Structure formats: structure tokens, C-alpha cells
Amino acid sequence: RTSLIFQTPQFEKLILCERGPSYDHDHVNLWQAEQQFYGKQDPGFIFIGQEPLNSTKFSWIRQRKLDDKNIRVFWLMGGNQLKKLYTEFKHFFPVVDVVSLNLTEAAHFFGFEPLQKKHRDANELRIMYAREISRRTLKYGAKYVVITDGAKGASLARQVRGGRVEFAYSPLIQENRITTDTDAHEDTGCGDSFAATIAACYLQA
């Protein structure tokens, strides 16, 4: 995919992207290619990203998980999927080991007051949102819930014996930030990189 990034006094950042990646839909089936990659072997780990809502990947994963409960499923849930939670995906959660949500998108979906600029430093409110969203999501059957909060940090929750929810919110630790070019403001791909890191740590542990 090709992106052009512009900065002028009129706008801080404007990104123009191709509608890519481009391929012939009639001759290339991305999900079929992924299945061929897995083959008949046990994939061990399956990552779900911005899958189309009508993708057969969800039913395939459900069947594979029923056949082998050791398969780990990580779901980086997009806003388009969140909108269809009750109608399409509510019953998919029991086969998901880790689901990752964006706090702003999830807060809007679950009916909380939208997080605006005035809430930028309202840490207690953000943590309360993340805790309640995690509790509701865990009730659907997911084992772990990761909620990203942009540059503020992230939270992790899981349900333990007795239905109690263990919840931890980790703010961004400024001291651990690497030195970067101060003129670089592009953050595209940060969420994907974060999700990949969480998935890798989960598999190792």
C-alpha cells in the first residue's frame, strides 16, 4: 500500500492512501490462501484482524477450536466488527483467548459518554471505562481483554475463580520511550505493532 503524508499550516496531518492492497477478487481468495498456508497441520495460533464481516474464517476458527482447544486465538477487534457485536459476533467470544479493543471505539459502542479532549487527563474516568468494558466483554466468554488507550497506555483483564475480574491499567511510562526524530508525527501501524507484541508475549508465557 502506498501512502502520502502532508503537513501544512492548514492541517497537522493528512494521509492519502491507495485503496490497497490491490488484487483481482475473482481470482484471488485471501482466506483460501491463508488456509493453504496453515495446511492440515495444527496452526497453534490464529490471529484475527480486520476480516470482512461475511468471512468464513470465523466459522472455520470455531470448528478448529472445538477440535483442538490448545489452539490460541487472538482477535484485534476493529470498529466495523464491534458494531456487529450483538448480531454477528457475540457467540464467537467463547473460542477467543485474547480480544483487543480500542477504548474510544468501545466506549462509544457500550454507550459511555464519548471521550473528548477534556477527558485527556481524566485518568480515573478512562480507567473506569476500561474496567467496565473489560467486565462486560469477559462475560461473553473471552479469556483475556486488552484495551488500548492511545498514547495514554493500555489495560489487561481476565476472569478468575468465583467470577472475579482481575484488572490492571498500565500508563505509558515516559522514561522508557526511545529517542525519535521530533519532526516525525506518523503513528500509523502502532496499534498493529502493539497487538503483535501482546500476542508474542502471550504465546511465550
> What is the topology, as strand order, of the major beta sheet?
3-4-5-6-7-8
- The H/E string reads EEHEHEHHEHHEEEH
Portion of residues within helices: 25-40%
Mean pLDDT: 80
Please report the number of helical segments.
7
Question: What would you say this structure looks like, in words?
Answer:
It is built from seven helices and eight strands, in the order E-E-H-E-H-E-H-H-E-H-H-E-E-E-H. Strand 3 (45-48), helix 2 (57-67) and strand 4 form a beta-alpha-beta unit. The protein has helices spanning 30-38, 57-67, 79-82, 85-89, 103-109, 123-139, 190-204, and strands at 3-8, 11-17, 45-48, 72-76, 98-102, 144-148, 153-159, 165-171. The protein is α/β, with parallel strands linked by helices. The strands form two sheets. The protein has a six-stranded mixed sheet, sandwiched between helices. A two-stranded antiparallel ribbon has the order 1-2.
What structural keywords apply?
alpha/beta, 7 helices, about 200 residues, two-stranded antiparallel sheet, six-stranded mixed sheet
Secondary structure elements and their pairing?
Elements: E1 3-8, E2 11-17, H1 30-38, E3 45-48, H2 57-67, E4 72-76, H3 79-82, H4 85-89, E5 98-102, H5 103-109, H6 123-139, E6 144-148, E7 153-159, E8 165-171, H7 190-204
Parallel strand pairs: 3-4, 4-5, 5-6
Antiparallel strand pairs: 1-2, 6-7, 7-8
